[in-house]
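This part of the workshop introduces the protein records we will be handling. To make this concrete, we reproduce a full record directly below:
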Amino acid sequence: MAGVVCPASSSALVRTTVALNQRSLGNSAGAVSVSAGGWSTRNAQPLVSTSCRARPSVVCKALDKDQIAQAKKFQLQATEVLAELLKSKNTQATASKYLDSLTEEFFMVASTYLEMAKKEGNVEVMKNIENVLEIAMAEKGKTLRPEIQLMNALLNETDQYERSKTIKSNSLYLMDAEGYFYELLDRMSTDVENLKDSPKKQKLLTQIKTVSREVKEAGKALRRAK
């Protein structure tokens, strides 16, 4: 699939095989960061990577213990949910059972494990996690706003004729030129542009630009026809 809008927050979650952007949960003294390349593991559990940012004449202080504990808690919970999905004989049913736990943290943790498996060359684990992520995204996607579901459908449809049919059947969300759908489209484009350059990034940007052009043309035609 070309790309998906993050099921947890409507910000861009590019293909699960794309390295994660570094995220910070920091205060003025330092930051707790989570990234695909910056995690360490102990007994297969992801740990929080901590860093302090030096400032002139300021001594780097210890991070807030509660903040670190909370970050670890979220990551460990996400790991436990991933483990349940991986061992389940009915992944879709299990994903539905843990729907409330399919948060942004879950998708970030799962994507991190996917990157680890790829780097280690563990094809079986990589395929299993990819399958779990695809099913989890599909289940979470059912709960998203219609505009987000429309965005995902358009980005994953490579045939122009099929996209035009999807656009036509969802014209309600294209009428307002300043509506949520267009805001979402612009936000996703910006998020992807800020990612590290790669062939996958360029491919997704091309798809976003194509979808953007088509929906804006369709939206203009709909407004003229009113």
Observations:
- Confidence is low (pLDDT under 50) at residues 6-62.
- The radius of gyration is 20 Å.
- The chain has two domains: 1-142, 145-226.
- The first helix runs from residue 65 to 87.
